[in-house]
UniProtKB/TrEMBL annotation:
Catalyses which reaction(s): a 2'-deoxyribonucleoside 5'-diphosphate + ATP = a 2'-deoxyribonucleoside 5'-triphosphate + ADP
Catalytic center residues: 126
HAMAP family: NDP_kinase
Protein name: Nucleoside diphosphate kinase
Length: 160
């Protein structure tokens, strides 16, 4: 399509989306994956991982001065997570909209947090907050060869 031709040589926008340990334990992996698939984003990488505390401290380093940082790292280290790279038009901002607000109680029904949780320290999913954070997070969680190049056969029915 014209869009794919126009984007030739450019990397389409990607976001780092992660199902947190509570989302995995509650059986919400499929539900979260389903929403990104149905919206029209392309899954480029996915893995389950029980992340170490140093890895999580690096992931959340911007929050290291916060009072909740230790609890946040303990929560994220309490079980496996499912880390993903989703690609497509406006993936970062739209991904955040699909997640809802940081505080689930402030999240609109219809968003992932607004539909499935009530506690900021148990908010089931992560999404990058900018393209720069997305690039940093993707390279922290995935090796380049783990990001899979493929073309969904339905792409021309999703992007004009
Ligand atoms: P996010 O980008 O919406 O995930 O929010 P932030 O980047 O600001 O914070 C990262 C994560 O830290 C959030 O998703 C929450 O799980 C947790 N968090 C943020 N603020 C608080 C807080 O005030 N208290 C607690 N307990 N956890 C928080
Ligand atoms: Mg954040």
């Amino acid at each position: 399509s014209a869009l794919y031709k126009a984007m030739a040589g450019k990397t389409p926008e990607r976001s780092f989306i992660m199902v947190k340990p509570d989302g995995v334990q509650r059986g919400l992996v499929g539900e979260i994956v389903k929403r990104f698939e149905q919206r029209g984003y392309t899954l480029r990488a996915m893995k389950m991982m029980h992340a170490s505390k140093p890895h999580l401290e690096e992931h959340y380093k911007d929050l290291s001065s916060k009072g909740f940082f230790k609890d946040l790292v303990a929560y994220m280290n309490s079980g496996p997570v499912v880390a993903m790279v989703w690609e497509g038009k406006d993936a970062v901002k739209t991904g955040r909209k699909m997640l809802g607000e940081t505080n689930p109680l402030a999240s609109a029904p219809g968003t992932i947090r607004g539909d499935f949780c009530i506690e900021v320290g148990r908010n089931i999913c992560h999404g990058s907050d900018s393209v720069e954070s997305a690039n940093r997070e993707i390279s922290l969680w995935f090796k380049p060869e783990e990001i899979i190049a493929w073309d969904p056969c339905i792409k021309d029915w999703i992007q004009e």
